[in-house]
Amino acid sequence: MKQYKIAVLAGDGIGPEIMKQAIKVLEVVEKRNDVSFELQHALFGACAYFKTGKSLPEETLEICDKADTILKGTIGLSHEETLKIPVEQRPERGALLPIRKRYNTYANFRPVSLPRELSHFSPLKSEVIGKGIDIMMIRELVGGLYFGEKERGVDATGKRWVKETLEYDEDQIRKILGVAFRTAMKRKKVLHNIHKSNVLLSSILWNEILEEVSPQYPEVEIKHVLVDAASTALCLNPAQFDVMVMENMFGDILSDQGGGILGSLGLMPSACIGDTKSYFEPSHGSAPDIAGKNIANPYAMVGSVAMMLDMVMGLEEESKKVWSAMQSVFAAGYSTPDLSPAHGEGKIINTDDFGDMIVKELEIL
Ligand code: IPM
Ligand code: MG
Predict the structure, then answer these.
(1) 279 and 230 in one domain?
(2) Is there an atom of ligand 1 within 6 Å of 92 CB?
(3) pLDDT of residue 344
């Protein structure tokens, strides 16, 4: 039997509620496959800071180091609560970015996917959606502005200034482009390269490396799109995209837009893949305004489990079943309150019920 140690970092806000549903799904998978999951819960984010003085405590790091993979919920508190935490310990800077850096999870996969039957969730017109939306956004996750040198100061006249640098070296670019090409090869063999080479030197280097890498993948058709134009195109004609690749900050922004065209960020799971360790998390935040109310949408969290089953455990069939279980609950007219129900007559369900319904569907698949 294959055994996996999974570090479970439920985090803040709605994190624990949606993580609970993810665990229900893992239990079903464990029951009917030759695998066992050892879940190790650890503090992470603002809750960790208030308990231990650190948003990423040593003990959590040890658990993550020893784990085969990491399942992460959401982090962050309301603006007022965040102000009580010193800047360096705030969950994004103090916990999330260090995890990305420590395990060098450079390849962030963010599927922007909505089957035709669920197109009523999208704010886009049905003729724009066509046969459904199915895009894989690939975001470089450990470089660029997020991790470049940062400096702030005050000049001789008292004027405050700040400088942050967008840094990449060619190896980092080559690695993420390799991931993108290989993903395109498994899908439609079309790769949209998102850049801003009319302004940024970093995009010029990025595109040069792309020219060097592309001969290894002669079957992949490359389409270059400036990031601002890509943002418009995502709204006007999302069907033209299949695999998109981009640097860190572009990916942060366009992937949230991806959630927008689906109808909710609650539909955006993600996988953060490194050479030796990967972690899985919803792309959305901790929604402190609805935390504890049992109304959050667990789709992105459970979708992240589906990605983990496929990408870490090689349980491709189970992964597909988790997706279809979630989608059949939606297709039956149920939805969490963040989504617009089918033709105004759908049934609104809460987080726990959604989790239970996924389990029920999954059990018969
Ligand atoms: C994301 C989030 C993070 C990011 C935040 C929480 C630091 O927005 O994963 O997209 O900007 O990468
Ligand atoms: Mg983001």
Answers:
(1) no
(2) yes
(3) 62
